[in-house]
Amino acid sequence: MNSRKALECPKCGGKELGKGKQNGYGAMYPENKVSMGSVVEFIICTECGFIIESYVKKPEKFKGTLF
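The structure corresponding to this sequence follows.
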């Protein structure tokens, strides 16, 4: 898996980033199967608030949901 770690905000150039999460009713749920879903996590610019990355904490819950 290729991944690059974000080092600065593409919107404002800010270099101080933070991590946040969306939980509870804001969780991501698989479309076609019963599951508790997964917390959505974000990498955020702490200067302008731009969301640089978003991803689910437990991607395995979404296997077999596309077709």
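Residues 12 and 60 are 33 Å apart (CA to CA).
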